[in-house]
Amino acid sequence: MSHKKVKKRRRARHRVITALVVILFAIAALAGVYYCFFSKPTVPVTDTKTPSSGQTQTTDEESVSGRKEDFYTVLLCGTDDGNGGTDTIMLMGVDVKNGDINVVSVPRDTLVDVSWNTKKINSTYNNGGIDKLESELEETLGIPVDYYVKVDLKGFVKLVDKIGGVYFDVPINMDYDDPTQDLHIHVNKGYQKLDGDTAIGVVRFRHNNDGTGYGTEDVGRIETQHAFLAAVAEQTLKVSNLSKIGSFAQIFSDYVDSDLSVGNMIWFGKQAVNMGSDNIHFSTLPGDPNGKYMGRYYYILDPAETVTMVNETINPYKADLTVDDTHIIGS
């Protein structure tokens, strides 16, 4: 199957985390309209590699000269998976000049080259925090991460409850218990109204107690997260909820951490609103969800397809990356 066909199929399936893009940025934009407080972010200057050159650049001028104009990469992640890791990991490419936003999901079981035994991308957070997660994504995919937005998933519980619940079509019966995390998910398939606690169970669900479920745990869960968070965004931004902007802002303040300033957030929100939802595109890094490496199961990226997707979506460089610019193992 061609990459374009795969990409089209995934786009149809993945109504990605519009809540993080729309709720965080659009609400910020609404606040910005009120306070008239906008601040365009700069591209952080760090040592980088020009694609395919392998040569480290160190001067300010050199490190940004090879980049596209007004193109930013932002790591979006949700924390509190019960094990100190990250349940949701995405990289967002904001192409202001061309009016596009691309959000690429990174399955949490993605294999990465780390020193500890469980070599999953989501383990990097509890072995080094956001800095380690950023550096492993940069090393694996060959692109810089300019900024991050980290959301405590408890904030979504508060948000869902604040808007009075979310109507959502739960895709499968969910029956799972993990006493060690005090996690109990018991939700029937079908269209229903979810409160915050039930909703967080739905987006965290991977498989039932008897092992049944999505079939491809991580990929299936990502699809449900995308669909649910799109529903949250749609229902949050109803006119009837505009009076709750102050409460939303408080939830944002309590549960969101970022190295973007408030002014930067508002600026990004303004761009997202101007671009419109039709120009926000979603995908998941291509790979094998049942790959095996050193006796353990991982989501193993397909090097060629991954590079193609990165170039089409989140590569901030003018030159295309090659497989040699990445560090994808296990394939």
Automatic annotation (TrEMBL):
GO molecular function: transferase activity
Region Disordered, annotated ranges: 46-66
A family per Pfam: LytR_cpsA_psr
Keywords associated with the record: Transferase
Annotated EC: 2.7.8.-
Record keyword Transmembrane present: no
Sequence ranges assigned to domain Cell envelope-related transcriptional attenuator in this UniProt record: 86-236
UniProt KW Transferase keyword: yes
InterPro entries found in the cross-reference section: LytR/CpsA/Psr_CW_biosynth, LytR_CpsA_psr
NCBIfam families the record matches: lytR_cpsA_psr
Protein name: Polyisoprenyl-teichoic acid--peptidoglycan teichoic acid transferase TagV
Gene source species: bioreactor metagenome
